[in-house]
Amino acid sequence: MRRTMIEPALFACLPERSRGRLYPEPESPTRTPFQRDRDRIIHADAFRRLQYKTQVFVYHEGDHYRTRLTHSLEVAQITRSVCRQLGLNEDLAEAVALAHDLGHTPFGHAGEDALSAAMAPFGGFDHNEQAFRLVTEIESHYASFDGLNLSWECLEGLAKHNGPILDPRPYFAAYTERQDLELASYPSAEAQVAALADDIAYNNHDIADGLRSGFITREELAGLPLVGAIFAEVERLHPGLEASRFRHEAVRRLINAMVEDLLNETRQRLESLRPQSVEDVRGLGQPLVAFSAEMQSTNRLIKRFLFQRLYRHFRVNRMMVKARRIVSELFEQYQQAPICLPDEWRRRAEAADGEAGTARLIADYIAGMTDRYAMAEHAKLFDLYR
């Protein structure tokens, strides 16, 4: 049956009403502003590097595990599907989804923990702030400006897709003096969808990778709300199903259940809150896009289980201990001897503003590394036979 087209919602972000870019540019004759945002993100160096950055498993542990790149693509797919049902702008939401993890270090959260500790005397490190710095400053390919010069709406969504920022980190605070992103308000509904699509993709695909690795089992997961019921349903409908098919069938049903809950709860909020514009969404004082209270509780329990049984599995811990050491030792070595940096980065270090400026530049260099590049650089610096 052919599905009818859904008209844009009153509270959707419309490209023709975009607040524009920091550096004015002629409009494209073939793409809307939000489509150009998406395309610029896809063509960015930082986006390509996500292919070899850890989600849970380091890249060399298997070709079928998620990376930051595949995770970002999966978030974008869920985001578009939800936005289509709500009459939101799919292109803007997709751009936010694709960019949300650009600032992650090599080795996932272990790498970020190590870099945060190293940068503690110099303002710290945060992957969301780093993603924002990448698209507004660090990516430097265009003739007329640094960064990607994304639209106001895309930058707003990237900055505060997880909610209002009441105590902005230094770079956010400095940037808003140039272009006010209204950090204390809620973001657009499109950005809110991207944030919850991240949760849906993260939990469910980590369940799939955990099962594939054998680090968690179906029996352990069976005690979780929603997960256990869906596992039982798949077993009843398809007795004796081989492990790989069972895993895929169960996870796709889990994703569908979470998406349906998100849509139902959001539609209920629309009925009661009745926003008439994107400005109304920003000023509601609460999220418009949300899970039900029951699904929020289920989501927390799944996260807790994954943290205890997967992210803290002893074999994951072993790799993460190595990862933290690699990042920490790289930072310390570059800080002590900036001459070890590649020529371009060394010249920039020499021109940096004091010790804090040099440290931030070193953090930018390390944060941009893929897992395999970080391991190779560490070997070159510390293996006497390389």
Task: Describe what this molecule looks like in 3D.
- The termini are far apart.
- Helix 3 packs across helix 9 (189-213) and helix 3 crosses helix 12 (243-273).
- The mean pLDDT is 93.
- The protein contains 18 helices and no strands.
- It has 386 residues and is mostly helical.
- Helix content is 61%, strand content 0%.
What distinguishing features does this structure have?
single chain; 386 residues; mainly alpha; 18 helices; 61% helix; globular
Topology:
Blueprint: H1 33-42, H2 45-49, H3 68-86, H4 90-99, H5 108-118, H6 127-138, H7 152-160, H8 170-176, H9 189-213, H10 218-221, H11 227-237, H12 243-273, H13 278-282, H14 293-311, H15 314-336, H16 343-350, H17 354-367, H18 371-382
Helix pairs in contact: 1-4, 3-4, 3-9, 3-12, 4-7, 4-9, 5-15, 9-12, 9-14, 11-12, 15-17, 15-18, 16-17
- Percent of sequence in beta strands: under 5%
Helix content: 55-70%
The shape is globular
Sequence of secondary-structure elements: HHHHHHHHHHHHHHHHHH
**Ranges with pLDDT <50 over ≥5 residues?**
none
Mean of the pLDDT scores? 93
Helical/strand content category = mainly alpha
Oligomer classification? single chain
Short account of what is shown:
The chain has 386 residues and is mostly helical. Helix content is 61%, strand content 0%.
